[in-house]
Every structure is written in structure tokens, then in C-alpha cells.
Specification:
The protein has about 140 residues and is of the alpha+beta class. The protein is built from three helices and six strands; from the N terminus they run αββαβαβββ. The model has no long low-confidence stretch (mean pLDDT about 85).
């Protein structure tokens, strides 16, 4: 997967990178400046602390200096997703020395930013629709 350009582009490419639709999990996308590829890892939302630490450290081993943590959940799973994203962001910064971290939540076909503090932004209320990205063959997934 190429390094993320925008949240919408990142979210549209994650299913292609995983070769499946994510569900009830946290997906970590890590990359370094000047590198043409990103690393994509996934952990279940109900993973224990050790599994979260392993995922965060793996991004560091792979050379990531920037990351996006994306949680995929239904409405009932939002509290757990918030806890997982908070732990992963802390672990990425404290344990893996990743300096630039963003965090998103996907529910259905919409995403919201955990880091956006603009009350006028629709990502805080209704969420922003995920726009499909064409595949290398030109088809939309």
C-alpha cells in the first residue's frame, strides 16, 4: 500500500491491503518519509495489552515514523474502540517512537476523526462517507 495521502484514500485502500473488509478490529498503517510503501497490520478490538504492544513495536521494526490507527466497529463497540485507539496511540508514541499519529473510527460506510476538534466538521457528527478508490484495473471495489 502506498503511504496515506488523505483519510478517505487511506480508508479506501485498507480493504485492498488486507485483502478483506475489516471488521471489529484496529488497523495500523505505518510509513516513513521518503518510502513508497506503507505497512498495514491488524489486531482484533478485543486483543489484550500484549498484542497491542506487539503491533505497535512491529511498526517500529518495519521503520515506520508515522502512523494512522483506524478502528472498525459498529455503534455498540465504540467505547472499546476508543480505549483501543487510545492505547495504540500511546504505545506508538511511547514504545515505538512513532512521531506522527492520526486516529480514525469507521462505522458502516462513514469515518470520524478522533483527533479533529473542529465543531463545524461533519466528521464529528454524521461522519464522512468513505469514497471507493479505483483498483489498478480501474474498477471501483
Amino acid at each position: 500500500m502506498p503511504p496515506p495521502l488523505t483519510p478517505s484514500t487511506t480508508l479506501a485502500l485498507i480493504p485492498q491491503a488486507l485483502t478483506r473488509e475489516p471488521a471489529a478490529e484496529a488497523v495500523l498503517v505505518g510509513w516513513a518519509d521518503g518510502v513508497d510503501e506503507a505497512v498495514v497490520l491488524s489486531v482484533p478490538l478485543d486483543a489484550d495489552e500484549a498484542a497491542l504492544l506487539i503491533a505497535a513495536r512491529q511498526l517500529a521494526v518495519d521503520g515506520a515514523t508515522h502512523a494512522v490507527v483506524v478502528t472498525y466497529t459498529d455503534d455498540a463497540g465504540v467505547p472499546l474502540a476508543r480505549w483501543v485507539v487510545g492505547r495504540l496511540v500511546d504505545l506508538l508514541v511511547d514504545e515505538a517512537a512513532v512521531t506522527g499519529v492520526d486516529a480514525l473510527r469507521v462505522t458502516g460506510d462513514r469515518w470520524r476523526s478522533y483527533t479533529c476538534h473542529d465543531p463545524a466538521c461533519r466528521c464529528q457528527t454524521d461522519g464522512t462517507p468513505i469514497t471507493p478508490t479505483p483498483t489498478p484495473t480501474g474498477d471501483t471495489p
